[in-house]
Design a protein that fits this description.
Blueprint lengths: L1 E2 L4 H14 L8 E6 L5 H16 L2 E6 H5 L3 H11 L6 H20 L3 E3 L4 H13 L5 H4 L13 E3 L7 H10 L16 H15 L3 H19 L6 E2 L6 E2 L5 H8 L4
This protein binds iron/sulfur cluster and zinc ion.
């Protein structure tokens, strides 16, 4: 399953994989899209994802936050505003809930790989974000081909993790690939945005910075992995998904909002 949001990275990856797949008749491919419930923005992206799947003749599955959690992201943001400052941005909710929704979608489809279109830019931003958040050991768990640490997790792979975003955009324009170009209305609130601006400035001034950061992390990854204690996952008390504690992070967030 290719996770397609409708944005340039995921739609471009879908086109490349659809082309490669023709040489592998034993492989079956489908597309999964999570509808977070962001009015107008996600509606347009869903249509673009659908149109691309139709053109390529690939099965498209959609799962919405509303269906899975009972609330769309706009409603969650509204709830957090009513309840006062939670300290979390819309992206904090969105990231956790989308990760769970994508895994559920992939597992229900019975696939053995979930392909994520994270670019080199996304990967380096995530690495720095983990450091800024004070959680550097998380870097050990977030890698190009993820380990499967529980049978309910579908293995995530990120084939574009060493491709700079500007090359993806260039390819998309050359191939006249249709993708969504308007940004999510909540994107400005994310810390990732500041990290992106900083890294873009560095890359512009010192070409190769993104690759250097990515390669440096890959060099220290074995040491990080060796020092991370092995975790035993149990099943979330509320939803049954794998988790370290009593509740998975998604249920924790929804419980704090008083909706589960
Ligand atoms: Fe979700 Fe934030 Fe991305 Fe919008 S920018 S889709 S809220 S993670
Ligand atoms: Zn849960």
């Amino acid at each position: 399953m290719v996770a397609v949001s409708g944005g340039k990275d995921s739609v471009t990856l879908l086109h490349i994989l659809a082309k490669i797949e023709k040489a592998f008749p034993d492989v079956a491919m489908c597309v999964g899209t999570v509808d977070e419930g962001v009015r107008d923005y996600r509606d347009e992206a869903l249509k673009i994802a659908e149109d691309n799947c139709r053109k390529l003749g690939i099965e498209h599955r959609v799962l919405s936050f509303k269906e899975l959690f009972g609330y769309g992201l706009d409603e969650i943001v509204e709830l957090t505003r009513k309840r006062g400052e939670s300290g979390l941005t819309p992206c904090s909710y969105c990231g956790v809930l989308r990760r769970k929704a994508l895994n559920t979608l992939a597992r229900k489809a019975g696939v053995d790989k979930l392909v994520i279109a994270h670019s080199l830019d996304d990967e380096t931003q995530t690495m720095l974000l983990n450091i800024v958040h004070g959680d550097p050991m998380r870097i050990a768990r977030s890698k190009p081909v993820l380990d499967v640490i529980h049978p309910k997790f579908v293995r995530r792979v990120k084939p574009l993790c060493m491709v700079p975003e500007r090359e993806i955009v260039f390819y998309a324009y050359l191939k006249k690939i249709q993708f969504q170009s308007i940004p999510c209305p909540y994107a400005q609130t994310a810390l990732r945005n500041d990290i992106r601006t900083m890294l873009n400035r560095m890359e512009h001034k010192h070409a190769g910075t993104l690759f250097t950061i990515f390669n440096s992390i890959e060099k220290i990854r074995p040491a990080l992995e060796a020092s991370v204690a092995e975790v035993t996952l149990k099943e979330c008390r509320l939803c049954g998904e794998p988790t370290v504690g009593d509740l998975c992070r998604a249920c924790q967030l929804l419980q704090e909002l008083g909706v589960v």
